[in-house]
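Usage

Read records sequentially. Each one opens with the input sequence:
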Amino acid sequence: MYVSVHLANCHKSKPILTPKNEKKYISLVLWENKDGVDKFGNTHSITVSKTVEEKDQPNKYVGNGKDLRKTEPKAAPLAPVPNVGGDVDDLPF
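and closes with the structure output:
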């Protein structure tokens, strides 16, 4: 998965500060787009996680993502081959 996050949209949210290492973290939500691939090839969207108090507020979109897994193209189903050599039961072995 490759993602791109617009940091200017993230700073408005409250990052989580952990007391142990004093590093800042932000919780994000990543999901697959229900409309499929957009015109830029993005397959996923990213928003900032909401608290219980923020559940009725609109999502804060901060980025998009692309699925990097290589998918094998599906082969077309094979057509049945006609039996041109007669019945298989008449073989001598």
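Summary fields computed downstream for this record:
- The helical segments are 7-10.
- The longest strand covers residues 61-66.
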